[in-house]
From TrEMBL:
Keyword Ribosomal protein: no
Keywords: Transferase
Protein name per its UniProtKB record: Acetyltransferase YafP
An example Gene Ontology molecular-function term: acyltransferase activity, transferring groups other than amino-acyl groups
Keyword Lyase among UniProt keywords: no
Listed CDD domains: NAT_SF
Xref: InterPro entries: Acyl_CoA_acyltransferase, GNAT_dom, N-acetyltrans/Recomb-assoc
Domain of life: Bacteria
Organism lineage string: Bacteria, Bacillati, Actinomycetota, Actinomycetes, Bifidobacteriales
Organism: Bifidobacterium goeldii
Domain N-acetyltransferase: 3-167
């Protein structure tokens, strides 16, 4: 299995939305209850709105090399997204999600490496993230330190996550 990291494209909106939902409903369900995961996964909005948010940040996707995601493309390296990450100009990582079938195979590490390269190239000196309970150990292994335990809410549903930072 060869994984490529490439820039997000508008045609990735639906596939990355699916990765987001499945990662929450399947992977994060180990750490969050059914009401929390349903509420969280339900916050995707429309494909158009999702695309606007992905394009407003620097977003990359992980895909299987040679897995053409649309038959009209001559580029066999575009691949269907199996994970994605974004970062803004201040170094805030808003999203890092991997499809459950590809979890624990190094996909998130490759995506984070791309963000580290990007931020180093652009003089961004610190990365921050609001890591879920599920993602907390991953970020800790990659040099992020917990600054604060948080309890944000979506409507009436409360969650636990962690403000983490890495110089």
């Amino acid at each position: 299995m060869q994984i490529i990291i490439r820039e997000y494209r508008p045609s990735d909106a639906t596939a990355t939305m699916q990765v987001f939902r499945r990662a929450i409903l399947e992977t994060a369900s180990r750490d969050y209850d059914a009401e929390q995961t349903r509420t969280w996964a339900g916050r995707v909005g429309s494909a158009a709105g999702w695309n606007i948010r992905r394009m407003a940040a620097h977003t990359w996707v992980a895909a299987l090399a040679g897995d053409a995601c649309d038959g009209d493309s001559p580029d066999s390296t575009i691949g269907t997204p199996i994970g994605f990450i974004d970062v803004d100009d201040s170094g805030y990582i808003d999203m890092l999600f991997v499809a459950p079938a590809y979890g624990r195979l190094g996909v998130a590490t490759l995506l984070l490496a791309r963000v580290k390269q990007f931020t180093a190239d652009h003089g961004i000196v610190r990365l921050t993230v609001h890591a879920s309970i599920t993602a907390h150990p991953f970020f800790a292994r990659h040099g992020f330190r917990t600054v604060e335990t948080r309890h944000p809410t979506i409507g009436t549903v409360s969650f636990t996550n962690y403000l983490m930072t890495r110089p």
